[in-house]
Here is the input.
Amino acid sequence: EAEVAQSPRYKITEKSQAVAFWCDPISGHATLYWYRQILGQGPELLVQFQDESVVDDSQLPKDRFSAERLKGVDSTLKIQPAELGDSAMYLCASNAWGTGAYEQYFGPGTRLTVT
Amino acid sequence: RKEVEQDPGPFNVPEGATVAFNCTYSNSASQSFFWYRQDCRKEPKLLMSVYSSGNEDGRFTAQLNRASQYISLLIRDSKLSDSATYLCVVNNMDSNYQLIWGAGTKLIIKP
Here is the structure.
């Protein structure tokens, strides 16, 4: 069964440092999402890509967060500098755009702890 | 008012019992509905898509009530392994293939 890959699975960093997360969506899925999830809450969309283009980054804190999907396949989310409040699970999901199906499939996530 | 609302629980249910929880959504134009399951510190996994006629998958039954704008999930003969958080999800009618997520209902099955 095709899966979304993410790395690293866990990351501990000190505040003011830079961190980066990587995601490889299910093969053929044109749409890729980055979410942040805080314990006890639902996932919060940070950025959505359609192929290599950003569809929605309205909830991305652009002063410190950046995301790219240069070749329209895998993607990187970066935080610089990290703050204590960034501690959360960062989830990547993908979807088969254009099929009329809204289901999204998630990778295992990266659990970030900022100290 | 949140766009998707769920009772956070926890629902503490004895093994073998039937449990049901609802989720309400605010946008009457929403057309796609889902239940996702999320285990502690894991990623959400699609449990069921919810069709207008309702659908069943083994011990799980999902129903949609458009008039009252809620969807429900029924779990029969609950197992210890059903313990998880169940997330209610609807599509965002602004399109772009976005989903709107509830905060989840925590279910604990006790032996």
